[in-house]
Amino acid sequence: ARSVTRRPYSSRNPPTSAMAALMSAAGVACTAAATPKARRQAVPRATQMKVALRGTSSLRASFAVAGVRGRASSRAWVVTTKAVLTGPAKVAPVVTAPRPDMQMPNMEDPWSDPKWAGVKWTVYRDVAYDLKPFIDRHPSGNWLLNLSVGRDCTALIESYHLRPEVAIARFRMLPKLADFPIDAVPKSPRPNDSPLYNSIRNRVRKEMFPEEGKAMHRTGGDRAAAIIMGTAVAAYCLFAQAPGILTGAFLGLAGAWIGLTIQHCGNHGAMSKHIWVNNALGLTDDLIGGSSLMWRYHHQVSHHIHCNDNALDQDVFTAMPLLRFDARRPKAWFHQYQHLYMWLAFPLMQVAFQIGDIKGLLTRDCDGAKLHGATALEMATVVIGKIAHFGLLLSPLAFHSGAAVACGVAAYVAVQGIVLACTFAVSHNVAEAKIPEDTGGEAWERDWGVQQVVTSADWGGNVGNFFTGGLNLQVEHHLFPAICFVHYPAISKIVAEESAKLGVPYSSYRTLPGIFVEFMKFVKDMGTAEQIGDVAQPKYKNELMLA
Questions:
Q1: Is the pLDDT at 306 greater than 50, yes or no?
Q2: Which end of the chain is more exposed for a tag (fewer CB within 10 A), N or C?
């Protein structure tokens, strides 16, 4: 089993003063993991430090860090610091950065300008292109390429192509748009500028997929898909024959398994070399109660590119005001109880998705990303999917009592919601994945590859990978969303080795219970942590962009 490779905290290896102050102000644990045999390390008792907080005014706060204490666990050495605010009590408010599909302040709006309204434009590395000639010829289908329309697509393109030279060559063949207001479009991160990402990707290509051009990285999940779909069909047959709490719960487990695996990978284009297979598996999200269209925009445009970004990752800010997963978010009095009442919220996650899907359909906006590239057919899948989903769930009413069906549906919704919520949440919401400096500055200023590694935590191995579709190996999934999940265990070894070479923290837990305990502690801590301001400078910089 692998262990967390975050260095032990000690007087020889302290965190940067800015990072320590921010974590202290948040009142969260600074988790620095070593091997289970890590010995107790000496820590400085008190340190004065100042942190610049980004906000509408240039506020500075001074924090005195005191009461440092440590504890050993079976997984890691944990150092918890308690902060005493010695400067101004008021911290900078949350800064909402420009969304990646809305114009920069005081600039021309290419989304509403009639000159560009009918053009399928995108921006790639500071050049505007017309995607229309290539939309229907894209090897992975137009549903994926449509995500690039109307925004800077650099991170989407570079993170989805194992062979970046192929994508670059294709852009050189596309029509360039003269006089396009490129500066009005918020800049995207640039994965290809990341030394860490390039070193990992080069090894993955060489060691795992040496046969270039055959899209072998998208294959290998056929057997898993057959087992998952077979389980779902069996679960539905039982539910249709005898609707009730038990059969509804079993169907909920099967639905969650689909949600974690084949729909997820299918919508990433990572279950097959064939477009129709990926699209069909992606549409299973609609059958279990979600929307494949909304998922692609919310999950891939917002969450994947901007993982744990306070302003741009939809998974961070849409939980508010009910659940607070980031100390930069406003704190309410009831958040101190969120580690308790979240168990009442998780069973209703599908209800929240249903409401969000309808809202997104009406507004062409899923909060984290506008649906600029969505076609009429894609929009229609939302309506057709809802009809199919509720038709399947309610069809047993023709032969069984309403009470039995209602109990079964309630069990289905609750079980599926709990399983999905817990699995999605744990890997990005533990202390070591939520260090504010890791997502400091603007998105384009950061080293994208490093951000993906430090804002996620893995758990388990092959078994967890099979049952979660690779979501237990979140680091590898975020680095390579277009690779089928069956390859992630092998890739994780490469990621760990390359991260260690460059001194980048890489976190991995042995088991799901291990990371879940830390997740619960984090949620509880976030319920009482004082609000802090955004961090003005990135910790891991894109040196090429800032040169």
A1: yes
A2: C
Indicate if the pLDDT at residue 316 is higher than 70. yes
Percentages of the chain per state (helix, strand, coil), in multiples of 5: 50, 10, 35
Checking 335-344 for CB contacts under 8 A at 24+ apart, the result is: 335/526, 335/527, 335/528, 336/527, 336/528, 337/527, 338/523, 338/524, 338/526, 338/527, 339/520, 339/523, 339/524, 339/527, 342/523, 343/418
Beta-strand ranges (E) seen in 234-291 are none
Nearest to 526 by CA among 25, 164, 117: 25
Yes or no: say if 327 and 26 are a contact pair by the CB < 8 Å rule: yes
Q: Could you tell me which residues are beta bridge partners of residue 80?
A: 29, 69
pTM of the model: 0.81
Dihedral angle computed from the Cα positions of residues 442, 447, 451 and 453, in that order, rounded to the nearest 10 degrees = 180
Tell me the C-alpha distance between 518 and 473, whole Å: 16
Neighbours of 39 (CB within 10 A): 10
- In angstroms, the CA 519 to CA 339 distance is 10
How far is Cα 254 from Cα 259, in angstroms, rounded to an integer? 9
For position 319, what pLDDT does the model report? Answer: 85
> Bigger pLDDT: 68 or 358?
358
Pure H helices in 469-509 = 474-479, 488-502
